[in-house]
Structures are given as C-alpha cells and as structure tokens.
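Our collaborator T.R. sent over the components below with a one-line note: 'Predict the complex.' Nothing else. No constraints on interfaces, no templates requested, no preferences about which chain binds where. So this is a plain run: every listed entity goes in together, and whatever single assembly comes back becomes the starting point for the next discussion.
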Amino acid sequence: MLSEILTIVLLIAGSFFGFTAALGLIRMPDIYTRMSTSGKAATLCCGLLLAAVAFLFEDIQITAKAVIAILFLLITVPVGAHVIGRAAYREQVKSWEGTKTDGEE
Amino acid sequence: MNLFLLNTLLAIAWSALTGSASLMNFLVGFIIGYAALQVSNFQSAREKYFRRVPKTISLSVFFLRELVLSSLRVAQEVLSPKMLSTPRIMRVPLEIRDPNQILVLTSLISLTPGTLVLDVTPENDAMIVHTMFVEDPEAFRREIREGFEYRVREAMS
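Returned assembly:
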C-alpha cells in the first residue's frame, strides 16, 4: 500500500518535470536557457520514473537496473550538457538580448 | 577504498547468511558492517573512510535538495507567461585545484537546473557559468564556494 502511493507520487512528479522540460525547449529564447530548462529537468524526470518502477516491482534485479540507470544518467547528462554549452560558448552563439555578462569573459 | 570493499563484502555476507537478497537487507548488512568496522582496528585507513562516508552522504542530501528546489524554480519559469528570469554569464573563481574534484563540482552545478557550466579556464582557477535566476553575482559566488565547493572538498580530500 505504502509503496503504491509512493509509486503514484513519483510517477506524477516525474511526468510533471518531463512536461516542463518539453515546454521549456519550446518556450526559452536561446540555447543556454534551453539547455538549462530541458536537460536537467529531463534527468530528474527519468530518475523519478525509474525510482517509481523500482518501488512498483520491489524486485532486486529491477531495482539494481534502475539504480545503475540513474547513476549513468547522473554521470553522462552533465558531461553532455557541458560539452554542448561549451561548444556554443566558444563559437559565440548569440545569447538572449536580456542576458547580462560580467564584462570579463 | 579498501574499507569500502570490505564493507560491501560484509554486506554481501550478511545477505547470504540471512538468506534474503533484497535491497533493504543489503542496506541493513551494510550499516551493520559499517558499525562493525568502526569498532574494529584498522588504524591507518579507517580515519579517512569514517570521515568521508558521512561527508559524502551530506553532499548527496545537499545536492538532492538543490536539485528539487531549482527544478521547481525552473518549472515555474517555464509555466509562467512572462520571462521572469535574469540570465547571466559570469565567471566564478575556483578554490579547489584537483581535476577530479573540479569534474565532480562542475557536474553537480550543471545538473542543477538553471545553472550550466560553459567552460573551465585552462589554469583550472575559474569557471564560466550560465545562470538563470541570479540577481547578485557576488552572492552566487559565495553560495558556490560555501555550499558545493566546500562539501565536495570535504567529501573527496
């Protein structure tokens, strides 16, 4: 019973963040803000959904796979985001006109 | 690291002896093994390990809290009809120099929604960060230094 409630909560939260990630991809004005809103929220979304699966089945094999999948997400997503962001920054892709800079780039 | 291996082995032995390979039981075995190692005598390696494990847990909890809080902030930004954010590209000086610690630090910052590490200077002394919700750059630099950077250094050195 408890694990079912937990599963439901995790599923709803995960879907919510997945939705905002997709919406952020459309709504944000430049590549940097898009990377910020979509990539990370998608990680949280996948993490929550995988955790929900682990709680739903309560099976050691499935739990182990979910934990490993979450770990790999946590390792690979920031590296990918960093490389894409750095490529954009070095190519001087234009940022949204409201973006402030320090002046010491 | 050797103590971690030993701790894991103790947890496996506990699972095998109690005859149940569930995650909960493994965790129970790990905690019991941790306590058993703490009272036993491995003077050289033990201090580092028993200092690190609580710090690592503290870093993980801190990171998860940041992750959820800033995700909600980003969700609010995406769902609201107006642009509320104040995007900013800024330079954040680094105190840690060890490449592995910098890798963990930049990964954690990039994973937090709303902030993205764009570049690290070749000398490893500063990083270029794109942020969405920072009003005061100085306050943000202090937050990184006293929050993430401090905890990463505690957990990894």
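Summary for T.R.: Residues 2-90 of chain A form one domain.
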